[in-house]
Design goal:
12 strands
């Protein structure tokens, strides 16, 4: 059993790809996979998946079965989090992420912040 470290990249963040075939492109995080230390980015790292046609279970419970079409389907594959960098929503540049504790002792909260010297703004709003 491996201990999973908390990721600073969350679902919905805008990230920039640092290496690979999509280097320099930006996209939104569709899904974060902390156990695997990977994220799935919208419309980036696209792979082709060959699938068979399959009957879908009765979702409407009316009439016959519906069939999911087969063929070659394009879908985004997971990217290692070391290959992505969060884009700051304030300064619109890729940045490293820091955390700051906000609030009094009774209601403390950790907030992600931009680590650029000229920005230092909160990312979670």
């Amino acid at each position: 059993m491996t201990l999973t470290q908390k990721m600073k990249v969350k679902q919905g963040d805008l990230v920039q790809i640092l290496s690979g075939k999509d280097r320099g492109k930006q996209g939104k995080v569709l899904q974060a996979l902390p156990r695997e230390r990977r994220v799935i980015v919208e419309n980036l790292n696209i792979v082709k998946r060959h699938t068979k046609p399959r009957p879908i279970r009765d979702s409407s419970r009316m009439g016959g079965q519906t069939v999911q079409p087969g063929g070659v389907i394009d879908k985004p594959a997971p990217v290692n989090i070391s290959n992505v960098m969060i884009v700051c929503p304030v300064c619109n540049r890729p940045t490293r992420v820091g955390t700051v504790v906000k609030g009094a002792k009774s209601g403390t909260k950790r907030v992600r912040v931009c680590r650029r010297e000229d920005c230092r703004q909160e990312m979670d709003r």
